[in-house]
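Here comes just one.
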Amino acid sequence: MQRFGQVGIAIGTLGVIMTMMGLFPGITGVADTPRIGIVQVALLLIGQALLMFGAIVYVKFTFYLGQRSNLAQQVGLRLALTGLLFASLAGLSDILGFGSHIRTETTDIFFGQLQAFGTLASLSLSSVGVLIYAIGGEPNTDMTRTQEMKMLKLTPPTPEKPEDKESTPVKAT
């Protein structure tokens, strides 16, 4: 469980890579198109979801291991997931059939300004939710870390006791 925070970092890194592939498909060798397609939007959304999930896993297992989530953290988690849901709905609205650029015989689907604004605003909301989750809890103290080490059968470091000043004679010159 101690190294599960590193798994969160790996998941977040994978999310960043997928987001970059969605935003800039030319870095993978795919030819750029003048418009943003469904694959790019899907990669962007999946990448951001992985990034948010990786951040939450990292925060949980690095700062709040063994603790239950408080109300602020639960609100932050739900806000992050709601932001991802709204970003998915905004980004894929034309594909799902309720956007403003629905495919007809004369027009094609394209990623409009309103969709871009909705997606970016929702992803920003999701990021705020992750920040609320990160700062909303009470971090582990040294005492809880010692208890966790006992559960994992590790020996905690013993603090050095300061020497008693009264028992040590001081020589005057």
